[in-house]
Amino acid sequence: LGALLIGQQMHFIQNQNLGFESAHKIIIPLKTPESIGHIVSLKNELLNENQIMDLAVGGSYPGNESITDMLFFGEGKTSQDNVDVQTTYIEPGYEETLGMTLLKGRFFSEEFKSDSNAVILNETAIRQLDYDVETAVGRLVYYGLNGEKYSMRIIGVVKDYHFRGLQTEIEPMALMTSLDFSGPSRFLIANIKSDDYPELIGQMEQVWTSINPGSPFQYSFLDEDFARNYDKEVLTFQLIKSFTFIAIVIACLGLFGLTAFATERRTKEIGVRKVLGANVVQIISLLSKDFVKLVLVGVIIGAPIAYWIMDEWLS
Q1: Residue 216 in 3-state DSSP?
Q2: d(CA 158, CA 178)
């Protein structure tokens, strides 16, 4: 029962709507000053590839732990009402590249220089700041820095999305942008459409090497990065599934042995019953009813225990 439920849970989390599009996304980390300095040239060259649909740079991406946080409070509040909000710096186009859902307002745009002092919040952040999704756009959020009070204007609200594994509840999230894109880390996210991944990645590596000869080319797939959040659960499932199979085989061997032994001892009785007209079904029922009762008792005892253990594991 435990193995069946864990299997259903793994199927559930692997097919859950995460609030963004994780498939067909290649992540290229920008770790060296050389690669960071050549971001524009790299993007322009990569966009010449027909199989690359969109490109955007972000300080983090869903499934990656390099996320910072800030303490925000809403209008009419004080720093005593701070809400701890996860933050990441992005460039315009990041939201569309990841397929986020805009509920109100707009995404960042290079046409608006004032966006460097703007913020896009998810639904959870809006609620915890005591704002309403329908009316939050245009309002201010505040934060303190070095004893001074600063503000940022909300320009958009995005639908909640899972930027961590499903073991963690969705937390408040703020997306911010900057003219110089100042962030602790950078990742280039490519939205691709290809039937030949090895060929496309080879072409991307050639472009990278020509622009950043002194920096190693690295890449990963966003959906695989996100799936690593469940490595512990996958290992648990594989172990329990294996031991469950072994336990069932041993139990069946034991039942088979007991049945064979009982049959051997009752050979004469079976012969007499056959002579008197008993059919095969009646003979099998006679031999197996005692064992079936024991199996049913085992199920009755095991089911509530499995329910309790699985309820604890799911929580």
Answers
A1: coil
A2: 19
Task: Pick the closest to residue 152 from 124, 122, 181, 174 (CA basis).
Answer: 174
Residue 131 main-chain phi, psi, to 5 deg = -105, 170
Residue 64 CB coordination number (10 Å): 21
Tally Cβ neighbours within 10 Å of residue 100: 21
Q: How far lies 141's CA from each of 82, 163, 256, in Å?
A: 10, 22, 70
Write out the two tokens for 212.
Answer: 């950043």
Burial string for 193-219 (b: 16+ CB within 10 Å, else e) reads: ebeeeeebbebbeebbeebbeebeeee
- Token pair 């089911």 in the structure block, residue: 303
What is the distance, to the nearest Å, from the Cα of residue 61 to the centroid of all Cα atoms in its chain? Answer: 11
Spatial contact of 83 and 46, defined as CB atoms under 8 Å apart: no
Q: In which element (H, E) is residue 30 found?
A: strand 25-30
The 10s digit of each residue's pLDDT in 39-52 is 889 999 998 888 89
Smallest CA-to-CA distance from 129 within 187, 75, 203 is with 75
pLDDT in tens, 134-169: 999 999 999 888 878 889 999 999 999 998 888 888
The pTM (predicted TM-score) of the whole model is 0.77
